[in-house]
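Thread title: Can someone regenerate the structure for this chain?

I was given the following input by a collaborator and told the matching C-alpha cells would be attached. They weren't. Posting the sequence so someone can regenerate them.
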Amino acid sequence: MSVLRGADQAASGQPALVGRDYELVLAQELLMRPQVRVLVVRGPGGVGKTRLAREVQARLNPNFDLGAVFVNLAPLSGEDQVLPAICRALDVRDAGSPLDALSRAVGEQGLLLVLDNLEHLPNPEGDIVALCARLPGVRLLVTSRRVLRVRQIHELPLAPLALPLHPEGAASSAAVQLFVQRAQEVEPDFSLTPDNTALVTAVCRALDGLPLALELAAARLRTVDLTGLLGWLETPLEVLDGGPLDDAPRSRSLRDAVRWSYDLLTPGEQAVFTACGVFVGGFTLDALEAVTARPDARATLIALVEHSLIQRAEGTPPRWQLLEPVREFAAEILRASPDAALLAGRHARFYLELAEETDALEMRPSPERMARLATDEPNLLAALEYFMASSQAMRAQALAYGLVPFWFGRGHPAQGMLHLQRVLDMQDSVPGTQRANLYGNAAGLASRAGFSEQAERWARMSLALYRDLNDSAGEADALATLADMLSTQGNHAEAIPLIQQALARLEALGNLTGQGVVSHNLAATLSQSGQYRASMPFFEQALKLWHQLEHPIGEAYTRGVRAVQHLRHHELDAGRIDARRAWQLGRDFQDVIFREALLFIAGLLAARLGHQLVGVRLAAASEALRTRASVHLPRACYRERDELIAELRAALPPADFAAAWEQGTQAGPEAVTADLDCAMQTEAQSAVSPPDALTPRELEVLAGVAQGHSDKRVAQTLGISPGTVGKHVANMLGKLELHNRVELARWALERHVTP
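Best answer:
Regenerated them for you:
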C-alpha cells in the first residue's frame, strides 16, 4: 500500500487559524493520550470544525508512524461508506472487506485518521467501533454536527469565536480579529480604528461570532461600507452567500450551511426547530412546550442540541438559544409555514402570563424575577408587538402593565415610556380601569425620563378616566400620582393638598399599601419644601405601615429618604441609623433608582462622618450610575446633590477632589461596594495613616486595589508583573488580618490610601 503522509494533505496554504489556541492545544493533548481513541470536534455548521481538524492534522502528523490522513466524507451518502472512504484515502486496494484490507495494511502502526463531516452518514458508529477494535494504533479525529453514540468517545465542543465584551476590548476579540483578517483580503488597507471599532463590534455581535458568517460578511465590503453592511445583516441569509468556489458547496452560503443540518432532522425535529424561530434571544423548556404544544418537546430539544442547532445559554431556569444566523433560518421557514400565526399567538400568550406574574404591589420584582424578565425582554417585547399588530388591545395593555415594575427597576425609563405610549395610542383600546392605570404608570416613567410636561398630562388623564369610571380607589391613586408629578417639578404648593386628599381617601378605603406609599410621598414632599419637622410624623406613619405589611422595599425607600433629610439637618445619629437600615434592606434590590439613591445617601453619610474622599467617590458613582441609566431626578434631589458636592469641594484641595471624583466615576462594582461598606459601617473618625507594617510598594499596590483595579492593571501602572501584585495582596491580607480584596479596599478607603 502507499499511505499518504499528513504533510501531503496538511493545512499549508490556508489562512492562519484565529482564536482557537485553547482548542488546538487541547485536541492535540487528548489525541496523544493512550486511552483516547476517538475525539469528536462537534459544533454547528460554519463554526470552523474542518479548519481546526486540518491544523491538528498538520501538527500531529510527525507523531504517528503512518502520519495523519484526511478523509472527506461530505460528498458521500448511504450506509457503509466510512471504511471504503478510508481505504481510498490510504490508497489501500487489497481485495476482501474494507476492514480486513485496512487491518492488513495498517496493522498495529500508529495512524491518525481525520474523518471530516460524519454527521450525514447513517449509522457510522458501527464502523468506528470496528475500526478501533481491529487497529489498535489508530486514532480518530472526527468532525460532526451531531453527537456520535460510541462508548469512551471524547467530545470537544466548538463554539463560535469570542465576542468583545465592550468596544474597548475589540482588538483582543477572536471574532473581530477574524473579521479584520478577512476584510483585508478584499480591502488591503482595512484595519480596526477608533472610528470603526463600534461598527465592527456590532457586525460581529449580529453574527454571534460564527466564523463562516464573519468571512462571508467581510467579503461584502467589496460592495458596501461597514454601516451599510450592518443594516444588511438584519436579513443575514439574503446577504451572506457567494463564498469561494473551492470550498464545499455547503460553505459557500450561510443558508446552505444551516440547511445541511436541517435536512438531517426527522419531520418532528424539523417542526420543533422551525417553532424555535418565534423566539428572540433564547427560551426555557416551559416556553418551548407552550409554543409547540408537543409532549415530546424536551426529547426533541435534546436531539436538536445534539445536532448542534441549539446551544445551552446562561440563565435560571435553564435556557437554550439558536445562533442568530440559525435562528433567522428557522424564522424564514416559520414565515412560510401555515402554522406561523398559531405559533406566534402561543408565544405571545406565554410571555403575557410571564409578565402578569409580576406583583405591581411589590413595587419592584425580586432579583431572581428581574433577572428572568431581563433575559426574556426580547421575547416579551416581541409578544407586545404581536398583540399590537393583531389589535389585541386588552392583552397589550395587560402585558405592558406587567412590565412596568421591570421598566422602573432596570433604568432607561424612556424606553418603557415609549412602549406604554404605543399601547395607549392603539385605536381599539378600551377606556377602562386598565387603561387608566397605564396612564398613571406611563406618567411615572415619563417623569423618571425627564419628560415632566408629558408626565403631568398623563397623570391628569389617568385621574380624569378614573373619575369617569366612578372608581374611587383608582381616583385616590391617580391623585397621588398627579401630586408626585407636581412635586417632582418642584410645585410643592399644589402637590401637598392633592397628596393629603389622596391619603384621606385611601384611609377611608382601608388601603394600607396605598397609605404607605402616599404617607411616604407626603413626608418627602414636605421635607423637600422646607418643612422638615412637619414631615417627620408622616415618615413615621409610613414606616409603621411598612412594618405592618412586612414590606421591606417600602421601608428601605422611606428610611433612605428620611436619612437624607436627617443628614442634611446634621442629625447624625438618626441619619446614620436610617441610612444603615436602608442599606441593609435594599443593598440587593434590582432597582437602579434605589441603587443610585443609596450611593448618594452613603456619600452624604461619609461626608458627615468626616470621610470626605469616600463621600466624593460615592457622589461621583451615584451620578455616573444615574447617567448610565438615563434617570431624571426630582428637582429637589438635584439641589440636595449640588449642596453635597459644594460642601465636599470646600473641604478638599481641588486636586484631591478631582482625583476622587474621577475614581468614583470610573470605579468598578468591587470598589463601589467597598466605599458603600465604608460609609455605612464606620463611625466618625479622623484620617489614620496606614501602619508601618506595610511596605512602600504594598501601599502603591493597595492604592490600586482601593480603586477597584485588577491585578493586571495595577501591574501595568507600577511596571511589575500581575503575579507580584497578587503576592503583595496576599501579604497585606495576612498582615492586616483581612479576608478578601473587598475588605482590603475598604480598609484602604477608610484610611485615605491614595496613589
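The chain has 37 helices and eight strands.
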